[in-house]
Design goal:
The chain contains 14 helices and 12 strands. By secondary structure, the chain is of the alpha/beta class. The strands form 2 sheets. It has a 9-stranded parallel sheet. A 3-stranded antiparallel sheet has the order 4-6-5, with no helix packed on it. Helix 1 runs antiparallel to helix 10 (260-282) and helix 8 (203-219) packs parallel to helix 10. The longest helix has 23 residues, at 260-282.
Length: 407
Amino acid sequence: MIHYLKRLFPVFLSVTLFSVIVMLCCIRESDKKIPMTPSVPQPAYSLETKKTHVFHQGEMRGVWVPYFSLSNGNSAMSESEFKEHFDNIISKAKKNNINTIFVHVRSHCDAVYPSKIFPFSSTFTGSSSAPDYDPLQYMIDSAHKAGIEFQAWINPYRILSNGTADNITADSPCYKWLHDSDDKNNRNIIEYDNGVYLNPSRPEARKLILDGVRELVSNYDVDGVHLDDYFYMFTESDYDRTDYEEYNGTVGQSTTPLPIDKWRCANVNILISGIYAVIKNIDDSTQFGISPQGNIDNDIAMGADIYTWCEKYGYIDYIAPQIYVNYENDLLPFDTTVEEWKNLISNKKINIYIGLALYKAGSNEDNGTWSNGEDIIKKEIEYTRTANTNGFILYSYDYLDNLNLQQ
């Protein structure tokens, strides 16, 4: 234990000054326990039997498998239907020389596995009740048997993409906050632009996310945990004005408060470093990475402090920017953007995987520039190799069979 603590100590030394300020001045983690959902079938796996990771060798050749791809359009899949469908996903990945899959296991404050914290995803069962089998365990086992690395992809803050808080059901851990007369508890959730999200500035919301990561990594032999670009989804200041003013009130007269954009980055950094520490405390070999937007300026505006993540120890093991553009893009030409991201990484222990827009190939996207050749994705893959990146990830699985993309 002492040896481990010494090894983990640099994580806390590396936290940036503004993160420390926020942590000391405005963070008071709640002692209240997150209410648990009813008991469901338990994972057939424990930490004692862990350490069966399957890691890719050499270049990563990854593909994202979003939550809707798991259902295949069927919101009430039987166990046999689901298993057959996922076997086809693995078979197609193997056929296309994919060595790593990023599977959406928590997309909307829910889970595609038996959880004591989150309701079961209604994606392919049609309800929030867990089935009598464990889909995640089956997916991990199937991937590992095929020699494919399995990364668990989660959206930490998103609750509803299109709806109101009234649609959050009583089995959600967020339900209690919505119906709490205490304004501070109610502020754990943000409603904005037909969406509902956990509030990145609230300690209780972060605790829920960390508890979820801890449960996931403790109970399943995932090879990695993966976040995408859902952080602060909006840059307007009104929705979290009360939280920001509360923070300002905690800063002493001798200290200048952080501007709101840096304060938001600090809130996200507290979560990211916390996730990293949780994962490494359970299993140091489990990877943790993030796939932010390809536009660096947009990332900072949304609270994604990519500069810190790519420089300091204790945040991520890899970065996978979504460079969903081609060479003809006026704002972000593909090759120039790849080089900009590579130059961000001063921590040489951090790998970079380039996210590629497989779904755009052969389409009329970006003023029709994706239809100016059948080999754009091929050229971009070749560029990731000549640029000495560590590999690429395709978005998404559903487009691997598109006849327009076979070239």
